[in-house]
Amino acid sequence: MSPLMAIFQQVVVQELFERILFIWAIRHPASGYVQGINDLLLPFFAVFLAEFINNDVDIEHFNIDSLSESNRRIIEADSYWATSYLLEGIQDNYTFAQPGIQYKVRTLEELIKRIDEPLYRHLKNQNIEFLQFAFRWMN
Fold it and tell me: Which part of the chain is the Rab-GAP TBC domain (predicted)?
């Protein structure tokens, strides 16, 4: 799912995401909000929303205002807790300087150096740092 989809342009959905991410940041002051957490929230939101709509409805263009306030709150709460649970195991990726991601990128660099020395040398000769391209892969 892309944040550019029509459903994510709805004010109600944007406010729902904003509340979830704000509360998560307040409850986790060591990291606060870090870019990329919203990407983890997207699939949970879609899964919990799907419970309340018919299978033949296109989720991308679904008007969330057609759901009751109660159902929207259920989706919001479930999305928050599922995202929180996921982040418990990978919170190092989302703290200052993102040590979890830094570690993964270094591990990738060491692996490439061992299994494909010519590629590793080429990247180094071109002054290409692994962090420049692998950060998004690990995020």
Answer: 1-139
